[in-house]
Amino acid sequence: MPISAKEHWQLSKPPITGRNGLVASQHYLASDAGAKILQMGGNAMDAAIATGLVLGIVEPWMSGIGGGGYMTVYQAKQDRVQVVEFGMQAPLASSPADYPLADQGTNASDSFNWPAVTNDTNIHGPLAVAIPGYLKGMGLASQAFGSLPFSKLIEPACQQAELGLPLDWYSCSKINQLARGLRQYKTTTETYLSDGLPPVAHAEGLLNYLPLGSLATTYRQIQAEGPESFYTGTLSQKIVQDLNNAGSKISQEDLNQYQAAITAPLFLKYREHDFYVSGELTAGPSIIHALTRLNSLMPQPADTPDENSYLAFAESLYSSYQNRLLNLGAGQGHSGNTSHICCTDQEGNMVSLTQTIMSGFGSRIMLPDSGVLLNNGMMWFDPRPGGPNSVVPGRKPLCNMCPVIGRRSNGDWFALGACGGRKIFPAVFQLASFIMDFNMDAGQAAHQPRIDVSGTEIHARGDGQEAPLPQLNAGAQWRHWRDRLVLPAPRRPLGS
Fold this sequence. Notes:
Shape: globular
Strand content: 5-15%
Structural class: alpha+beta
Number of helices: 16
Order of helices and strands: EHHEEHHHEHHHEHHHEEEHHEEEEHHEEH
Radius of gyration: 22 Å
Largest sheet: 6 strands, antiparallel
Helix content: 25-40%
Strand order of the largest sheet: 1-9-10-2-3-6
């Protein structure tokens, strides 16, 4: 008789507490850089900027100065929440004609469920690159909310760029996973696949570093000249020349005219709690919609999340996605490579920062003279003309980022965010509910099981298996499958 065995692992991490501030990110080197900025007397914004800049070096497949993002900021003394917008933008010379549709009935091979574009030119290569907003955003945020000079904030990233990419098992695995796409482009091949093969971590666990070409020189120039140098001056000219040589439509005018912005957040009085989230081009409207729906479906939350709670989560999320897909033009299937950072300081200031270059290694285009790895932000646009999220010159596309700051009814503030493309919004929505509806702390909320409702199907995880539940078109149908809903097993907590 065959012998079978079954294992079920539950991973957990103890919450970290501190009196003088905290930095949470996806990589320990980035978090360490932010923590040292706090120790130097910097505030939460200073720490967030330093952390984000280092993340672009140690996890280049996730984010970097060639991308963009959004952040939500709480100023304790002013008791005020604001949003910094630095999303990517379509070049002024872009056109829907640049992205002809492939055979009818096929979907894009990466991320969104748009119709496929011939040769996936909106996913990788020079025409996939949107105008990066990252350094504009960091410069604006530093000026408006920071306390230390930008030159000090970028110093840890300069040092890391000079060392190179740490080659641990995970970074080697990511390069190996994405090697097929990297091989299509000369500079990325020379950098990440220098001998034709992905790098291998040291057999005895020693940390080696992968050189990053001219990126360290670029970071030192930004340190000397400021983040504006990416958009004007000799550095911007070098970037535009590299882009044009590669076949991109981004011009000097594109970089010159790009602007980040400080705006008011979207606000919801949720029960007795205050909830603030990023604005109209993010998943902010969708999470506001979902929480409003949840309030009506779950007027009296149980002591702990139960079957009815998860049913209410699922219907709220599903309803919000239907509205998002119909009215906002966002796609259904973004797998995404995004980073999230949460920082607080001893004064009580908080920053919730989400940054991305989109797909793994973005467009796969690394500029030879500057070493900058560029986003594939044009993938966020619907290639079909005439829609609410179609390609329009100078337009910024919808995205799935969702940096949140909230205040519970007892006066406690919290910051939330996540990485993971289309799964960001469902994750943040449920984490917010766990904190506000069930009085959980951050550690309890991160370890509480969640469901994924990030498209047209509802997925529940249990016993190590994930399977779609029936697509629902009306609330009356929910009871038909409630008995089939398996509550998800605890999963690895978010890095954010």
